[in-house]
Amino acid sequence: MKKISLLGATGSVGTQTLEVIREHADQFSVAALAFGQNIDAALPIIHEFRPRLVSVKNKQVADQLRIQIDSGIKLVYGVEGMIEVASATDSDMLVNAVLGSIGLEPTLAAIEAGKTIGLANKETLVTAGHIVMQRAKESGVSVLPIDSEHSAIFQSIQGQDRSAISKLIITASGGSFRDLKREDLEKVTVNDALKHPNWSMGAKITIDSATMMNKGLEVIEAHWLFHMPYEKIETLIHRESIVHSLVEYADHSVMAQMGLPSMLVPIQYALSYPSRMKSRLTKPLHLSEIGNLHFQKVDTCRYPSVSLAYQAGKEGGTMPTVLNAANEVAVHAFLKKKIAFLDIERYVEKALEHHQTVHNPDLRTIEAVDKETRVFVADLIN
Ligand SMILES: NC(=O)C1=CN([C@@H]2O[C@H](COP(=O)(O)OP(=O)(O)OC[C@H]3O[C@@H](n4cnc5c(N)ncnc54)[C@H](OP(=O)(O)O)[C@@H]3O)[C@@H](O)[C@H]2O)C=CC1
Ligand SMILES: CC(=O)[C@@H](O)[C@H](O)COP(=O)(O)O
Ligand SMILES: [Mn+2]
Fold this sequence. Notes:
Layout lengths: L1 E6 L4 H12 L4 E7 L4 H11 L3 E4 L2 H8 L7 E4 H9 L6 E4 L7 H9 L3 E4 L2 H18 L3 E3 L2 H9 L8 E8 L17 H4 L9 H9 L1 H13 L7 E5 L5 E7 L4 E5 L5 H9 L14 H4 L5 E2 L6 H12 L3 H17 L7 H12 L8 H19 L1
Parallel strand pairs: 1-2, 1-5, 2-3, 3-4, 5-6, 6-7, 8-9
Antiparallel strand pairs: 8-10, 9-12, 10-11
NADPH dihydro-nicotinamide-adenine-dinucleotide phosphate binds next to helix 1, helix 6 and helix 9.
């Protein structure tokens, strides 16, 4: 029985992780879980999966939840609470599906505690990839990708000569506005932005997908996960989201992983790795029904977020931290209808221009820069 600690249990990836655990209840259980404030969604989860430990966003949510759950369940809160969940003594693996760079410290705690990491929370690697991967290496801990593109790359390098990889090609749907011209983006609404053509996901990543900052974040995520220089990471628009990413080798052979768009596949693969398990929850891919697959170069004038992410990633140091923090604040403001869609990348660009890179930053510097950037962008917005 593999015992899981799950961060972000009430979210899109979190609930799908629970679906996989439910389907394979003879193999997986939930030792501990964390969520933010959605008590209505959390209560049935807690009753069904009976974790020993639960963490919530803050004391107020903890006080509300306390009277509604079994008194035998330990209840904690805040980042400290997530750290306790991530490093719970009775769990074997952390699935990190919380939203944002708040997932960094719990990830580091889980690494220190020797837990295998299943990582959906890409912001953690964007903000401090050098620290996470170095500590994982030192502790002999595996960081298994859950993000679909990175799972595809991971699956495409199994059993291969990794020194012969010449290129990673990360596919992108193009997001909600892929059929609009740039000038049409001035007046798009939050509701329109939330209509992803292929995936049903949380609000923040759906907006990231529309700006294609999601692809930018994924380039940086791939850089750290696969130790690949930015010059060898490409992005490619693929409307159907069937080819989840590709790896080109020195002999020009290209390996890809395909499947109907469902996060259940990469989640299950991370949980069962290195084995593969049957899935009754997902459907087989019939290419004859799909008919055609389309691929198209990414136009970085149309999607400047991709260029901003490459620039920040290549600059390194604290620059990706700024990229991520500025983006988190700007996307939140867009979702709250305080700024327009195109303002998201404007604010990110301003934050990057304003920042003086600190090279090889330690954790404290990362956290300070993350905070400063959030204040900087919030001040611009207000
Ligand atoms: N959704 C997807 O298909 C994919 C997502 N990812 C990545 O996975 C991560 C999660 O995405 P997604 O599932 O879409 O996000 P959701 O918004 O659906 O879920 C976020 C989860 O994080 C919890 N949370 C938010 N803030 C806090 C906090 N301060 N303390 C504790 N918990 C908190 C939420 O709790 P609550 O709602 O209860 O407040 C919720 O459980 C992101 O990094 C995303 O980029 C990667 C690939 C695909
Ligand atoms: C499912 C997943 O991994 C998302 O990151 C998804 O890839 C978003 O789609 P885009 O390709 O539109 O960014
Ligand atoms: Mn992805």
